[in-house]
Write a structure and sequence with these properties.
Blueprint: E1 4-5, E2 15-20, H1 33-36, E3 41-46, H2 63-74, E4 82-87, H3 89-103, E5 110-114, H4 132-142, H5 147-151, H6 153-172, E6 185-190, H7 198-202, E7 212-217, H8 223-226, H9 228-239
Parallel strand pairs: 2-3, 2-4, 4-5, 5-6, 6-7
Antiparallel strand pairs: 1-3
């Protein structure tokens, strides 16, 4: 099973945008982006194993291993400029993928990191070890999750293993020293996100050698759901590709 879901292949597109979901998320989170970005960009959303149509695939709870697998799967798709966008856990994974691609001589043209602290400044909150109700409470607290869905015992039994896995992945992540990222980076956060503030997001600039920008939009941890058009406008403007009409 492949790592990417592409709702609409665009062989003519000038840029590929690889989108990495949050903890507990899947590729479907980025499905609305396909039309919103317009014809100049092809959206390739990462589908982590152990969920959705990869339910039977073994979970990966190590961020560095996940990044290596994603970077390897990207190799055949790097025949045109590639950018990375990751939200929350996905932002840290996107950063690690960008580091690997830079090391291999095929760096992305831009990295967008959304809704998370810098990789060398992780918080100490632990959710993975909580009981099922505690994990569900944390998910609902983050937003972006249908609380009614998690009240269904059968759905909960399907969802919780990969959610707990993802929390383990990001909570066990340790930033390894190495060359700073020469790729331009844009960090985007919501101004009411309880998990990252402006000062913490600004620390992404410390791991970047290239150009760094910070954007703050109204909203909470899942600000990008309500502000999709502004986020995509920022991405298109940064990548210098025509906006959708």
């Amino acid at each position: 099973m492949t790592w990417f879901r592409c709702a609409e292949a665009r062989p003519w597109a000038s840029t590929r945008l690889f989108c990495l979901p949050h903890a507990g998320g899947s590729a479907v989170f980025y499905r609305p982006w396909t039309k919103a970005v317009g014809p100049a960009v092809e959206v390739q959303a990462v589908q982590y194993p152990g969920r959705a149509d990869r339910l039977g695939d073994a979970l990966v709870s190590d961020a560095h291993k996940a990044a290596r697998l994603i970077a390897a799967a990207m190799a055949p798709l790097l025949d045109r400029p590639a950018a990375l966008f990751g939200h929350s856990m996905g932002a840290v994974l996107a950063y690690e993928v960008a580091r690997l691609l830079q090391e291999r001589g095929t760096p992305p043209v831009h990295l967008f990191v959304s809704g998370t602290r810098a990789p060398h400044d992780r918080g100490d909150e632990r959710i993975a070890g909580r009981d099922d109700d505690g994990v569900v409470e944390a998910m609902v607290g983050l937003g972006g999750t249908d609380a009614e869905m998690l009240a269904n015992p059968e759905l909960r039994a399907l969802v919780l293993p990969y959610v707990r896995n993802d929390f383990t992945l990001i909570e066990d992540y340790v930033h390894a020293p190495g060359p700073r990222l020469a790729v331009p980076v844009t960090a985007i956060i919501g101004d009411d996100d309880p998990h990252v503030n402006e000062a913490q997001a600004a620390r992404w600039g410390e791991v970047v050698e290239g150009r760094f920008a910070l954007r703050v939009l109204p909203g909470d941890h899942f600000y990008l759901t309500g502000r999709q058009s502004e986020v995509i406008a920022e991405v298109l403007r940064t990548l210098e590709v025509p906006a959708a009409h």
